[in-house]
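Data card: per-record layout.
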Amino acid sequence: MTVKEYNRSVEEFADSVYRFIRGNLKDEERASDIVQDSFEKLWRNLTEIEYIVVKSWLFSTAYHIMIDIIRKEKRMTDLDVMHENELMHESQYSDLNEILHKALNLLPEQQKTTVMLRDYEGYSYREIAEITGFNEAQVKINIYRGRVALRNYIGKVETVL
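The structure for this 161-residue chain is written out next.
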């Protein structure tokens, strides 16, 4: 890859990688740091990576950095165990976006990541498998289970509307 292609990749992909990471972490500063670290790694591997694979390489690298950060934080803090009854939403409320984001935050990290890559970013199962390191069957299972949990949390559409 050339320096010109590197600069073009920053212009084309930095925002979408940032949105993906911020959507998972809900922390703008950490998301910015992860994107910067990803592009730094790209710069260090400039001669080894071809421009045609840069987008998936960046998403994959950012995803793995994010997972490392999450694992490190889990070791450092005592997290509450999520209970099944937390996945049910019974009251009437009309802000579907807020309910959906709350439901996404309750999903296990693998399900949340695969659902966001598929439904928010529009990646294919194969591309998600490349980014996350899962095989396609695992990706499909995580997406299915995540969607079922979201559906159970949100409940009937009439309740939300």
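Known properties of this structure: DSSP finds eight helices and no strands in the chain. The first helix runs from residue 3 to 25.

See the next section for split statistics.
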